[in-house]
Design goal:
The complex is a heterodimer of chains A (180) and B (235). With 180 residues, chain A is an alpha/beta fold. Chain A is 29% helix and 21% strand. Chain A has a domain at 4-93 and 133-164: 3-Layer(aba) Sandwich (Rossmann fold), CATH 3.40.50. Chain A has helices at 16-22, 28-34, 63-75, 84-88, 100-108, 153-164, and strands at residues 4-10, 35-39, 51-57, 60-62, 76-82, 129-134, 144-146. By secondary structure, chain B is of the alpha+beta class. In chain B, 26% of the residues lie in helices and 16% in strands. Chain B contains 6 helices and 10 strands, in the order ββαβββααββαββαβα. The longest helix of chain B is centred in the middle third of the chain and has 17 residues, at 79-95. Classes of the chains: A alpha/beta (180), B alpha+beta (235).
């Protein structure tokens, strides 16, 4: 069986899911026997090549994430929403209950820890926040989801290992469903 | 008392009349999912999870508010019912802001367990993201409307068991809310006795004591059922 290509991508999330991915510990050796990790926050690849599996952490919170997820969808055969934020917005979506301006002002201008000297970041390179945070599935077709905040390392390994062996995992049957 | 025969999932059972389909199923270990049912208080058929199919009826019937009848043919395990159970569960999640990761009930929540049971891994409906109030005015307890699924177990327990009727319901549709007294802050309530029964009746993290942090809330709804049973005892 030819080696597969695996990418893990970090959008609007806290990287906790990637931390949990690292928690698969030595089982990463079983993964790299079957796949090359070609792009990930923990490896050095810059461009996203065509990949068999893309694990995408985090929700779509800005114009940049929106562009990225469309690109990932084109490049990935199997797109997996990785973690509660990617699946159902979770903590990143908590700003959806409020007006965006109010949220940004609270964080950057009026936060008590700013001691009255807060400044609004305005560099043109910065991404532009969308009004509402949405899960991946509202923008692109998602092939599989791993809920959990973060998903357990066992669950992540189970899903990866099944896909790498050309089987379709079933979280419900494997009793690995978890939110929060 | 004369027994009657009902057929549940192609098995025959001899049961007492005047019982609900839910009671009969629970007694005979036929699994039925519920959220708004709490043994001992009046059933209202609000959550629609206990829907069953009855031969000869063209709509689904809630098991908790329907009495058994002689020769009733009941099905609780069809694909159609499973489909509706999943839809109902997903709509609970989509309607309010259920962020399990920051919830006091995380890991011990009836809504989470329900999701696992019916196999919800993602929500196929757009989340409403309503702006909900968190009422922290009570000295000991918090009412977080973000996590409420409108089972109204708190309303019924407060009314029927404690006899205080602090809680009630206002509005309709997705704007429906639990209210304290006449929609005033809970802390200002003149009827609440601070007994805490609503807290134990609540299946999610909507009502919780202030001394609790994320994932640490242990609820004991069985306590309410036991209390009701003991009050019936003749000394």
């Amino acid at each position: 069986m030819p080696k597969k290509k695996l990418a893990t991508i970090w959008l609007g999330g806290c990287s906790g899911c990637h931390m949990s991915l690292l928690d698969i510990d030595e089982r990463i050796l079983d993964v790299v026997k079957l796949a090359d990790i070609v792009k990930s926050p923990v490896v050095d690849g810059k461009e996203l090549p065509d990949v068999d599996i893309a694990l995408v952490e985090g929700s779509i919170t800005s114009d940049e994430h929106h562009r990225e997820i469309l690109h990932i969808r084109k490049k990935a055969k199997t797109l997996i929403a990785f973690g509660d934020c990617a699946v159902m917005t979770n903590v990143t979506g908590m700003r959806n209950y409020f007006n965006l301006e109010e949220v940004v002002n609270t964080s950057y201008l009026n936060a008590v820890s700013n001691d009255g000297q807060g400044e609004m970041p305005s560099h043109p390179c910065l991404l532009k926040l969308n009004d509402k945070v949405v899960p991946l599935q509202e923008v692109v077709k998602v092939d599989f989801v791993i809920p959990g905040c973060p998903p357990d390392a066992d669950t992540i390994f189970y899903v990866l290992f099944e896909f790498l062996n050309d089987r379709l995992p079933d979280l419900s049957k494997a009793k690995k469903l978890k939110y929060g | 008392m004369n027994k009657i025969t009902v057929i549940i999932n192609e098995k025959k059972f001899e049961v007492d009349p005047h019982k609900t389909i839910l009671e009969v199923c629970r007694e005979n270990e036929v699994e039925i999912l519920t959220m708004c049912h709490l043994k001992g208080i009046v059933d209202i058929g609000a959550c629609r999870l206990c829907l069953v199919e009855i031969e000869g009826m063209n709509k689904l019937i809630p098991a908790c508010t329907t009495k058994v009848a002689a020769n009733m043919v009941i099905r609780t395990d069809t694909e159609k019912l499973k489909k509706y159970q999943r839809i109902t569960t997903e709509l609970f999640y989509a309607e309010r802001n259920h962020v399990c990761a920051v919830c006091v009930s995380n890991g011990k929540c009836e809504l989470q367990n329900l999701g696992y049971k019916v196999g919800v891994d993602n929500i196929r409906y757009p989340h409403l993201f309503p702006q909900c109030e968190v009422d922290t005015s009570h000295p000991w307890y918090v009412m977080d409307h973000n996590r409420c699924i409108m089972c109204t177990r708190c309303v019924r327990v407060c009314n029927e068991v404690e006899g205080a009727h602090n809680w009630d319901v206002m509005n309709r549709g997705h704007q429906v809310r639990i209210i304290s007294d006449f929609n005033t802050p809970w802390g200002e309530s003149t009827t609440c006795t601070s007994c805490g029964k609503c807290l134990h009746a609540c299946p999610t993290g909507a009502i919780w004591p202030k001394a609790i942090v994320q994932g640490q809330l242990e609820k004991n709804p069985v306590m309410i059922t036991e209390l009701i049973e003991r009050r019936k005892m003749k000394l």
